[in-house]
């Protein structure tokens, strides 16, 4: 089994996608469409997107392990994979403690969930883990295709690659704002980034990356927002995306912020694909 993601993909909330959206993403040459917002249940949206495309890979970024049992997700996975073999990457993760009462032992819960996916026949190569800290990054390489870090910089990518070694997938998300005016671009950038500054797993990781309490205060410093939500013209943003690839990423999934993502998708496709 080999799921081909290409080097560049799109990250988009599952509720903001449909078959028409996926078909256009495929036409532009992107290799994968990552579905945010914890899509779960029967994963019908994954099937819909794959039905509408010929070769685009679809990945969940991520299914929350507290929301759906491994057995039910495995059943949905097999239904989809039987219909569209080697095009669906099942990304799973433990979310964050502020949103989940059961969060007490996330590492152990992830291991148990992976054990249940093994028992249900979901191949290691067909799944990936949301991973920020070194322990879960290592687990992602040992028990899945690899890691899908979210809200990270190329410095995290470099560190994650050192932990994973050669071979396992490393597919970070990168937010971007297609706007050359810094003040204007920071509005959607800060709106997106500030949400995660209330979540302890993300702030702990950002501190490890060298950001200070001052950077993390309130809605985030300009330095923090500029690092996590790249802004500029297509060439400038493309250079920031390539920084992840140069640091060891196999694939970068781009999250375009703002009301209309299509101008950015088209311009970045010309630069990166």
UniProtKB/TrEMBL annotation:
Record-annotated Luciferase-like domain positions? 17-119
Q: Which SUPFAM superfamilies match?
A: Bacterial luciferase-like
Keywords assigned by UniProt, alphabetized? Oxidoreductase
Q: Does the keyword Cell inner membrane apply?
A: no
Pfam families assigned to the protein according to its UniProt record, in alphabetical order: Bac_luciferase
Family annotation (InterPro entries): F420-G6PD/mer, Lucif-like_OxRdatse_MSMEG_4141, Luciferase-like_dom, Luciferase-like_sf
Q: According to the lineage, what is the superkingdom?
A: Bacteria
**What Gene Ontology terms describe what this protein does at the molecular function level?**
oxidoreductase activity, acting on paired donors, with incorporation or reduction of molecular oxygen
Name assigned to this protein: Probable F420-dependent oxidoreductase, MSMEG_4141 family
Q: What is the lineage of its organism?
A: Bacteria, Bacillati, Actinomycetota, Actinomycetes, Pseudonocardiales
